Amino acid sequence: MTMQPGDELAGVERTVTQAQVEAYADAAGDHNPIHLDAEFAAKTPFGRRIAHGMLTLAMVSEMLTSAYPDNWASGGRLKVRFRAPVFPGETVHVSGEVKKVTDTGGVQTTEITVNVKKDDGEDVITGQAFVQIN
Amino acid sequence: MPLQDLESGHEFPAEPLVITADEAAAYASAVGDTSANPIERVPSMAVIAAGLSRFIKHLGLADGTVEVVHASQEASFNRAVTPGEQLEIRASLKSNTERRGSRFTTVEMAFIDGAGAQVAEASSLIVVNAS
């Protein structure tokens, strides 16, 4: 059944750990010391190590893959801004809400507002995703 | 070549990208995605992440000598990538400007399969402390 405006996608909630950040660095090939080296990170404006933005964004993609198993990987598009860093130990809440469904020539496009927040409500990621269904 | 010397429109040499089933599984495990089936297909965002990491290195932004913030990300997917599939990354600088002590660099990447079809594309805005 097609999701309709106002429908919410099943969210993802996850506590990011330093071990996860280190595993991600190896898996994605991004070993910037701001993610891995506590002494180095202490001297940056963040004051401590931060998770990769793309690690958090992967959770958005996971939510969209779960909601649209076939169509996200072959017809998905997103545009997001990274609003705040995630520090290891913090829990993030990934959510999505269908804003609009349009039909053009038999191709249905669903627009979804995506959001990642911390426990205190601070935005980590905001943006839109679009899924085409032929 | 230093980042500040690269002009908008600069094209990087194309380079190959292969994500094996083991690498796809490691990625899915690292991001905590238990719903992924990395044996059959690479998690969508893993392709973008692998490409971005490479070009962050090419731009000399990976070693911590400069402050780098990943400010925004766009991505689109035309089809799922199969583990072990041979891809080519074609990347260019959409923009590379300095304003008030910060450099704003947008890297665009197209991921091309063996038949020449684009399977995904991405645009990443990186802000570098230029001071």
Which features characterize this protein?
heterodimer; A: 134 residues; alpha+beta; Thiol Ester Dehydrase, Chain A; five-stranded antiparallel sheet; 4 helices; B: 131 residues; 2 helices; 5 strands; 20% helix
Q: What is the assembly state of the chains in this entry?
A: heterodimer
Q: Low-confidence runs of chain A (pLDDT<50, min 5 residues)?
A: none
Write down the CATH class of chain B.
Alpha Beta
> Which fold name is given in CATH as the topology of the domain at 12-16 and 52-133 in chain A?
Thiol Ester Dehydrase, Chain A
Beta-strand fraction estimate of chain A: 35-45%
Broad shape of chain B: globular
Describe it for me?
The complex is a heterodimer of chains A (134) and B (131). Chain A has a domain at 12-16 and 52-133: Hotdog Thioesterase (Thiol Ester Dehydrase, Chain A, Roll), CATH 3.10.129. In chain A, 26% of the residues lie in helices and 36% in strands. Chain A has helices spanning 18-28, 33-36, 38-42, 53-67, and strands spanning 12-15, 76-82, 91-104, 107-118, 123-133. The two termini of chain A are 14 Å apart. By secondary structure, chain B is an alpha+beta fold. Helix content of chain B is 20%, strand content 39%. Chain B has helices at residues 21-31, 44-58; strands at 15-18, 68-77, 86-99, 102-112, 118-129. The chains are: A alpha+beta (134), B alpha+beta (131). Chain A binds chain B through residues 14, 20, 23-24, 26-34, 37, 40, 44-45, 52-55, 57-59, 61-62, 65-66, 72-82, and chain B through 23, 26-27, 29-33, 35-36, 41, 43-46, 48-50, 52-54, 56-57, 61-64, 67-80. Strand 2 of chain A pairs antiparallel with strand 2 of chain B, so a sheet runs across the interface.
